[in-house]
Specification:
alpha/beta, 38% helix, 515 residues, single chain, 23 helices, four-stranded mixed beta sheet
Length: 515
């Protein structure tokens, strides 16, 4: 008899519906054959399933079994096919098909004793199941239950053993679907343990980061070691608007596919903060492999990517960031497959002003030669630098600032300003693909970033003195627009423009235009 079940296969970060067709109508020696472009892990499923069926007390087929995974042109590589294949083989020996067999999609890995094991990408599969008409729910391993339950619109049935799954499908056992917990879990986990008030001094840096958060601008922080660059960067997500539930699911899906979810955290409810080491490879940063898998920039989607000691990264590795910074996504092409992953993040980079780190520290002597400094700074290309909106100098603090008992600007204070500015942008871009000022196209800049004649002279002088590119010209106007939004101003004033220009002056001071 031919039995058909519904399951899913991962393709990048998306789940694709797969039909598991099990047939034992042939004659010959008992043997399980899996076809439909299975990878090694799926081919090995035949051995796990055979032992799980026998060890769970069910009778194995005495005929050859053929398992077809359709569509056959999509590679199948997950261990999540174990449970649907086993249920298909057990059902194939019954005189009738359980009604529930066609109402539920089934995923899960099996141990040799028949118990279920968690698998990757459950959220992606639950999201896909919710979109399939006629599908009531999804059967998942017990440990994956809380993760799948954050998806609305689909019944999640957790099972801990093959016997439970069989009993549920035949109606011998009633398993109550897990209640939708997305809203509850989201509110419980959406909080931070750190605050900008922890950072002593550096009010100018906090102001620049408020501008970056308000407009979605990328930031480059330059300063000697120990000035608080890393502390500032780690607290940056605390001033960004809360993730929406849709954004949280989108981010969580990426971590779920990569198997990076913690058992006690079924949903990523805070802005992700990723800080890869400078030895990371190109594939590790932007994604890669065969089949392609997401990298660090996709794990930072809807959050922050922090690159500390920027010149220490391989230059080729940094160059691959150029396209994602512009497009908000990364496309990885292979001979037989092309995958696109979301990568809409705010980049925060930090570096020392020279190899020894003390070029701009008035208390320490720099021993680096001009050639060493030039070689150090040349590791960062001009095109990449142009894509970073705000260049921020973080100076060393004196003892009075470090020992001050006065509380600094808190995350709550900055966040209030950021949310007000974001609300203005939400209205501004209501009918546009852009979401923040940093996303504005050249045409939108001409509409929303108008300046008067005096402002035009200020910008012209800055372009000439600092040798800025056309891209830097547009970024100054975008930043000025964000500063005006923070001030709740309808138009860009000269004060706003001066502050925006000031965030680009490090082009000249550190990249050799004014030596």
């Amino acid at each position: 008899m031919l039995v058909k079940l519904k399951t899913f296969s991962l393709l990048g970060i998306d789940a694709v519906a797969v039909d598991v067709e099990v047939d034992n109508s042939g004659s010959g020696k008992p043997k399980t054959t899996i076809v439909g472009l299975p990878e090694t892990t799926v081919k090995e499923s035949a051995y796990r399933v055979d032992r799980a069926i026998v060890n769970s007390g069910f009778r194995h087929s005495v005929h050859p079994v053929v398992v077809n995974l359709a569509p056959a042109d999509i590679p199948k590589q997950a261990t999540s096919f174990d449970l649907p294949i086993a249920l298909g083989m057990i059902t194939d020996n019954r005189p009738y098909l359980p009604k529930r067999l066609h109402e539920y999609a089934i995923i899960g890995e099996l141990a040799l004793d028949g118990s279920t094991r968690p698998c990757k990408g459950v959220i992606a599969m639950a999201l896909a199941a919710a979109k399939i008409e006629g599908l009531k729910g999804i059967i998942v391993p017990y440990e994956n239950g809380p993760e799948a339950a954050v998806v609305d619109g689909v019944d999640v049935v957790p099972v801990s053993h093959l016997c439970e799954a069989v009993a549920f499908l035949t109606g011998e056992l009633e398993i109550e679907p897990l209640p939708f917990t997305g809203g509850t879990v989201f509110s419980e986990l959406a909080n931070y343990d750190i605050d900008f008030a922890d950072v002593r001094g550096q009010e100018t840096a906090k102001r620049a980061l408020a501008v970056a958060a308000a407009g979605g601008h990328n930031v480059l922080m330059i300063g000697p070691p120990g000035t608080g660059k890393t502390m500032l960067a780690k607290r940056f997500p605390t001033v960004l608007p809360d993730l929406t539930l849709a954004e949280a699911l989108e981010t969580t899906r990426i971590y779920s596919v990569l198997g990076r979810m913690r058992a006690d955290v079924p949903l990523i409810a805070t802005r992700p903060f990723r800080e890869p080491h400078h030895t990371i490879s190109e594939a590790g940063l932007v994604g890669g492999g065969s089949p392609p898998a997401p990298g660090e920039i996709s794990m930072a989607h809807n959050g922050v990517l922090f690159l500390d000691e920027l010149p220490e990264f391989n230059r080729r590795t940094l160059e691959v960031l150029r396209q994602p910074l512009e497009d908000g996504k990364v496309t990885i092409a292979r001979a037989n497959q092309s995958s696109s992953f979301p990568a809409n993040f705010i980049l925060i980079a930090a570096l020392n002003p020279c190899p020894c780190g003390y070029r701009t520290d008035p208390r320490r002597a720099c021993r680096c030669s001009p050639i060493q400094i030039e070689k150090y700074m040349s590791r960062i290309s001009g095109p990449l630098l142009d894509r970073i909106d705000i260049h921020l100098e973080v100076p060393p603090l004196d003892y009075a600032e470090l020992s001050s008992k006065r509380a600094g600007t808190s995350s709550a204070d900055i966040r209030t300003q950021v949310l007000a500015a974001r609300k203005i942008q939400e209205k501004r871009f209501a009918r546009s693909r852009a979401r923040y000022n940093a996303d504005m196209s050249h045409r939108q800049i001409q509409i929303f970033c108008k300046i008067d004649a005096e402002g035009d002279r200020i910008l012209e002088k800055a372009m000439r003195d600092y040798g800025l590119s056309a891209r830097a010209h547009d970024k100054i106007l975008r930043i000025a627009r964000t500063i005006a939004d923070l001030d709740q101003a309808e138009s860009i004033s000269n004060t706003h423009l001066f502050e925006a220009v000031n965030y680009r002056t490090l082009d000249r001071k550190l990249w050799g235009k004014d030596k």
